[in-house]
Design a protein that fits this description.
The chain is of the alpha+beta class. The protein is built from 8 helices and 18 strands. β1 and β2 form a beta hairpin.
Length: 307
């Protein structure tokens, strides 16, 4: 990545992203000075969400005539439900009106007032914002959000913005380097007809030959590669980090060894609308979680400048 210094402002080229994101040297220094406090605040945000989710789900179980006993998640997916009637998603599909969906399930529609929308990138942004806000860095955060919104609120755009303020980008892939090419080709063949594709072989070639993944510069292509079914040791040193898979299709904040996933399309009765799991996608119970047609096997992680 090329860096230009002009009039005391550091400008970073964006290589395909819409717009550029600029931070002054003072903003970068301030960010580094406050980084431990920031990541601890963001980590507390994740833990608060976990506590609220578990307590709400366990205390809001109801016996219904048609569906038996059902429990309600505090967090509902923003790509499935809405609090406004007649709302459509950006792809044109109509969102379910949450109060009416609750009523059809035989539940009090007023429960909707106690529930909160979420998504994978939404949770990452919310907890990052808390960290920036509580450390007096809203100027930096507002710049990040202008850039992220200009790029479709994408996970890799968020990672690009964080790198420009001092975080480091790591390519992740559980497979040993000498097996990645053959395995990546198999994964791409399996995912050929899936909506979400990792383009694993192509991304790996770009990382290896150009040091880039999508439009992101990769600082380290070794530390998070080849961990197989073990959590990479490096993650245990970081209270908060941000990961992506499938070129930002899926975004997951993390805390130490744990992946934290908020899901934007699951039913409001799903206990796993918000879930914590070890960053260990190949192991049973590990994350980011797989579905029948979403198998997250490579991507990017950005780690804050703690050391």
């Amino acid at each position: 990545m090329r860096t230009f210094i002009l009039f005391s402002i550091i400008s970073f080229t964006s290589f395909g992203y819409e717009g550029v994101i600029n931070f002054t040297p003072q903003e970068i220094d301030n960010h580094r000075d406050q980084i431990w406090n920031l990541v601890n605040q963001s980590e507390s945000c994740l833990q608060r969400h976990k506590k609220e989710h578990i307590e709400f789900y366990n205390s809001n179980c109801f016996r219904t005539r048609r569906n038996g006993t059902v429990c309600i998640s505090k967090f509902y997916g923003e790509r499935r439900y809405t609090m406004k009637e007649g709302t459509r998603r950006s792809d044109g599909d109509r969102l379910e009106y949450l109060p009416e969906a609750l009523r059809k399930y035989g539940l009090n529609p007023n429960l909707a007032n106690e529930m909160r929308q979420t998504s994978c990138v939404g949770l990452a942004l919310q907890c990052l914002k808390e960290g920036f806000s509580r450390t007096g860095q809203m100027t930096q955060w507002n710049k990040i959000m202008v850039f992220v919104r200009a790029n479709g609120v994408g996970g890799t755009a968020l990672q690009h913005a964080l790198r420009n303020i001092g975080w480091k980008t790591y390519y992740w892939n559980p497979v040993s380097p000498w097996r990645i090419e053959s395995e990546a080709k198999k994964w791409d063949k399996e995912e050929k007809r899936w909506q979400s594709k990792g383009w694993h072989f192509y991304r790996y070639l770009k990382v290896t030959n150009n040091g880039t993944y999508w439009f992101n510069t990769v600082d380290d292509s070794e530390a998070l590669v080849g961990f197989d079914k073990q959590v990479p040791r490096i993650l245990y040193d970081y209270p908060f980090w941000v990961g992506t898979a499938h070129t930002g299709y899926h975004v997951f904040p993390g805390t130490f060894e744990k992946v934290v996933e908020a899901h934007s399309t699951r039913h409001f009765t799903a206990r796993d609308n918000l879930e914590f799991s070890d960053f260990n996608p190949f192991a049973t119970g590990g994350g980011p979680r797989w579905t029948r047609t979403e198998k997250y096997r490579s991507g990017l992680i950005v780690l804050p400048p703690l050391y």
